[in-house]
Design goal:
Shape: elongated
CATH architecture of the largest domain: 2-Layer Sandwich
Order of helices and strands: HEEEHEEHHHEEEEHEEHHHEHHEEEHHEH
CATH topology of the largest domain: BirA Bifunctional Protein, domain 2
CATH superfamily of the largest domain: Bira Bifunctional Protein, Domain 2
CATH class of the largest domain: Alpha Beta
Structural class: alpha+beta
Number of helices: 14
Distance between the termini: 44 Å
Number of domains: 2
Number of strands: 16
Largest sheet: 8 strands, mixed
Bound molecules: 4-amino-1,4-dioxobutan-2-aminium adenosine-5'-monophosphate, magnesium ion
């Protein structure tokens, strides 16, 4: 009988000690004296020390082991021994060694992981995805996506997938990728919101997880030009109810990830206990309150384009990264900033009648910045048209009101109060996993300077 195929995790759990097992994976570290080969084997579940000795392994196997190298793929059989000196406490004495795929001069070494090497690592992203760091981040991302879907499923939301080829530009401005669609001007979607709004009239509660695109030249730790946008829309819900849905979702996901990705979180430098503290309710500030709170604080706002130190934040200014960080100083949970000046926000938000709109941004703790933007939607077509005209003037972009006719129809036929929000998946994964840069929250990051590999 051939030995059972097992994962490295199960070997490290101690359940195969003394047994003969079959393993497969990639060589993480490799060293040989000519008489003995030390190879650390890696699979999706962990790393394990192996030794191949002439005599224990048959001759053909030993010859194969000598041809090993970093990132070569191998299959082997051997006997598991407990060994305190081995990392993880176990070692496999190899009897049969089979090289599946050779690997000559693998271009990435662990020592490459410093700032200078970032560009090289991004050029070699297709190979760097094998690193423990990125594998942990990708597992965390998978668990996060799963938790989103669990929550929506348990709360009566239907998943839907509107098109990302569109002729309207939801968030406005020039930050949109435009392309020629068989002779017609079209855009890559910035947000599925307007389409989700159409869907609530049949389904009442919907969500989607689709890519959104922003032609933003921002080179920051929290901007991508393509990101996975988790968006939800709810009929019969106002701004207050919308915020309650968001905080329940986010606290569920934080707790769930703390349970299902504990090992990855610890390896990435996030204490799962931090995430278990993310309970409802979250703090709420109005925009006005947030500005006066920030004006009382003393913190570094960085420098302007001319290199001058920025003064205190003024009413009417957007929150930059230093402002967001100062606002959540000492907080363990995200906070909401609601009721922003209408002029600062998109055309579709419900007016509070005092120059502000019924919206909220959710700001993550520890300086990870805005993770959600949401609002109650306006049901007043004339107000929205006015906002669109002003916005186009402000941004210096052309406006085709006809492109929004279908959207205004939603207000003409059985309109209801409704609200929704959009969450940046990579921003949330960055916060949960304590990742230095948003690019590590996605496998192939797209930024203004990079669309390769
Ligand atoms: O605040 P935003 O622009 O809001 C909307 O698009 C709404 N239409 C959403 C809705 O109500 N359905 O984007 C929502 C979220 C942000 O809070 C942020 O987390 C993320 O999307 N986001 C980005 N993530 C990465 N890179 C970028 N360039 C992002 N722009 C927005
Ligand atoms: Mg926003």
């Amino acid at each position: 009988m051939s030995p059972p195929l097992v994962s490295i995790r199960s070997v490290l759990s101690g359940q195969h000690t003394g047994q003969k097992v079959h393993l497969r994976g990639w060589i993480h570290r490799y060293r040989t004296s000519g008489k003995i080969v030390f190879a650390t084997l890696r699979d999706a579940t962990g790393t394990l020390q192996t030794t191949t000795k002439k005599g224990v392994a048959d001759d053909a196997s030993f010859e194969e082991a000598l041809k090993g190298s970093i990132e070569a793929s191998v299959e082997l059989t051997g006997t598991v021994k407990a060994d305190e000196r081995a990392p993880g406490g176990f070692e496999v004495g190899v009897e049969q060694f089979h090289l599946v795929g050779s690997s000559h001069d693998f271009p990435i070494y662990e020592s490459t992981v410093d700032a200078d090497a970032q560009e090289t690592l991004l050029d070699k992203r297709h190979l760097f995805l094998r690193s423990r760091h990125l594998a942990n981040a990708m597992i965390l991302r998978a668990k996060t996506l799963k938790a989103f879907r669990e929550w929506f499923d348990e709360h009566g939301f239907f998943e839907t997938t509107p098109s990302v080829i569109t002729t309207n530009n939801c968030e406005g401005g020039s930050e949109v990728f435009e392309f020629d669609y068989f002779g017609q001007k079209a855009f890559l979607s910035q947000s599925s919101q307007l389409y989700l709004e159409a869907l609530v009239f049949g389904l009442e509660r919907v969500y989607c997880l689709l890519p959104s695109f922003r032609a933003e030249k921002s080179r920051t730790r929290k901007h991508l030009t393509e990101f996975q946008h988790l968006e939800a829309e709810e009929a019969w819900v106002d701004n207050k109810g919308n915020m309650e849905i968001q905080e329940q979702l986010v606290s569920y996901v934080a707790r769930r990830v703390a349970d299902t990705a504990e090992e990855q979180l610890v390896a990435l430098g996030r204490e799962p206990a931090d995430l278990r503290k993310v309970t409802t309710p979250f703090k709420r500030h109005t925009y006005d309150e947030a500005i006066s709170l920030l004006r009382k604080k003393d913190y570094d706002r960085g420098r302007d384009a001319k290199g001058r130190r920025r003064g205190a934040i003024e009413w009417g200014e957007d929150l930059g990264a230093p402002d967001e960080a100062a606002l959540v100083e000492g907080e363990e949970k995200p906070v909401f900033v609601m009721n922003w000046p209408a002029d600062m926000k998109a055309f579709y938000m419900h007016s509070n009648g005092d120059g502000t709109v019924a919206n909220a941004d959710m700001i993550a703790p520890f300086g990870f910045g805005e993770i959600i933007g949401g609002s109650q939607r306006s049901t007043d077509v004339e107000w929205m048209k006015g906002r669109l005209v002003e916005q186009a003037k402000r941004d210096g972009t052309a406006l085709d009101l006809n492109a929004y006719e279908w959207y205004f129809d939603l207000r003409r036929y059985g309109s209801v109060p409704h609200a929704g929000f959009g969450l940046g998946t990579e921003r949330v994964v960055r916060w949960l996993g304590n990742l230095d840069h948003i690019r590590d929250a996605t496998p192939f990051p797209r930024t203004p300077s990079r669309a390769y590999p």
